[in-house]
Amino acid sequence: MALTADSRIELNDGHKIPVIGFGTFAPQSYSKEQAKEAVMAAIDIGYRLIDSAFIYLNEVEVGEGIRSKIADGTVKREDIFYVGKLWNNNHCPKRVRPALEQSLKDLKLEYIDLFLIHTPVEFKPGDDLFPKDENGKVIFHNTDIQETWKALEACKDAGLVKSIGVSNFNEKQLELILNMPGLKHKPACCEMECHIYLNQNKLLKFLKYHNIVPLGYAVLGSARAPGWLEDENAPKVLEDPVLNTIAKKLKRTPAQVALRFVLQKGIVVIAKSFTPGRIKENFSIFDFELNDKDMKDLDGVNKNLRYLSLKSWEGSPKFPFHDDC
Questions:
Q1: Which residue in the list 56, 197, 217, 307 is annotated as catalytic?
Q2: Pairwise CA distance, residues 215 & 262, whole Å
Q3: Closest by alpha carbon to 163, among 16, 60, 310?
Q4: InterPro entries from the xrefs (predicted)?
Q5: Per residue in 170-179, pLDDT tens?
Q6: To which H or E segment does residue 86 belong?
Q7: Does 56 qualify as catalytic in the annotation?
């Protein structure tokens, strides 16, 4: 079946997720109001999946953007698929539902469509988003991830969220959930960094086997914002010569080809920009296809390069990106 802008993929719990989403993370140099305006523009263009997170600190504005487009009749609530995330300081079971309820309060929505554990790394429970010791090092915690998952299952059963999943998990960490005794709801999605320099083929095979839908972020590479890019000399996705050669051949932008590549790998693709022209450009990827050679060539530039390597969190027992993971 050919992919269209309206295509949705059925999750393992029966809900359906749009194949393209709009990401709302932005560097601190962007105002919160810009997040609202960008979400409104994205919905006008046709995006129906809105990906955000509590730690982005803009759920109030993102919610305003969504609700404004519902109010003016552009969409209905059921048309929008909102993705939220549980931050690292709230893995303790008793903190899971309050964290979700805070996001709902900020968004002014009655439910979240997909709620993800943002990362497997856990910080010291409390209201400090980045708790640190006297030496400035992050204070980690080690709640059993199965207990955190049970709390998410309870939120789903309560109707606060339609689907639940994870983000930035490796296979072993996913298996801890999949193999837990009394599992009621398996992860519906796994969000992960994915682009031509990180094709994630091994993890994708695992997710397909377990019927878990992959979501790809950083598809266009790093935003190169302070606190985001850890290697300033890392190559830029959109400057890759193979990508640019294919884009020139197809008379498309490198960004469109990069997005289409991930989409054709069977991954829900998240595009991120606060520039109206780019928001529209990134959505225009449904009127062309990459042939088998294009896909193979792009798959071949893989460098296993992570722009978000989380190296400062390597001291956590739950660090997900060790080489043997």
A1: 56
A2: 10
A3: 16
A4: AKR, Aldo/ket_reductase_CS, NAD(P)_OxRdtase_dom_sf, NADP_OxRdtase_dom
A5: 999 999 999 9
A6: strand 81-86
A7: yes
